[in-house]
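## Example record

The block below lists the input lines for one assembly entry, exactly as stored, with component labels intact.
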Amino acid sequence: MKLITRNTDYAVRALCYIAEQKQEVISGDQLVKSLEMPRSFLRKILQTLNKEGFLNSSKGKGGGFALAVSAGEITLTDVMKIFQGPIRLSEHKFKKSDCPYISDCLLKKKIDEIEKEVIAKLKAITISSILKKGDKGK
Amino acid sequence: MKLITRNTDYAVRALCYIAEQKQEVISGDQLVKSLEMPRSFLRKILQTLNKEGFLNSSKGKGGGFALAVSAGEITLTDVMKIFQGPIRLSEHKFKKSDCPYISDCLLKKKIDEIEKEVIAKLKAITISSILKKGDKGK
DNA sequence: ACAAAATGATACAATTATAGTATCATATTA
DNA sequence: TAATATGATACTATAATTGTATCATTTTGT
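Predicted structure tokens for the full assembly:
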């Protein structure tokens, strides 16, 4: 049972790395070398982050990826949504055939409460909050 | 992204149903009919709950399953552990090759905190707490 | 113009987890 | 001894996760 998949984990680490570097633009290969992730997989992840507006990309020599948004504005839920879809802790349904308690299902209610709290906490985790103290301003 | 799989969901509903009935012993087929779940799948789930000590089973006519433990003592985490293994929100590792921040990874720390809280809340959900008010004593 | 260095688009493949099915054996009861 | 129930277990299907690989396109520097 995982809440966070490797996709998301890699993406977060890549974002952190980019945010920490002095250079603005970091190439995919540099990330692969530094973070030791599977090349093709990371490349795909970077492309996705670009499409979703969290990274800017530039081609050619000296090109690569740079943050399109400040590190403080990228939350863990943002990244999770991109790579894992919407967060839902349970699929427990209201349908009569699925749950004998129908609209008044206490399990559903309790899970939903927990879900809300989890989402709130994940939302509070931003890229900059993950960076070591001292790097936070960036 | 799911926290609770269908296994667990079915198991919880079956336990609730058994806890609610006036008869102590409920046959698998009765559960299948009442809860409209796939027969073989539910049967396997019931067998597992029996092996794990949450249900007692009896064979032959009039046989079936009964709670082996009171509904207030079965928590959601118990059931989740059985069907989904240990709860871990992230696999984010401390290994040098996996995380550039190694032993001081703030992401890991933050996720672990959330994980602890989630587990505590899931632990607070028992079968009896899911049952409608009025049935709670059982 | 052209080669090198980078990303873009996209299709494919492997592995694992989830969800479900089916069958035969065994025990119990009437 | 037949009917009813679970036990053990092997098999299958589907979907999600985790990758891999290839060719196209853009940019830069010589």
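The CA atoms of residues 70 and 138 of chain B lie 8 Å apart. Strands of chain B lie at 55-58, 64-67.
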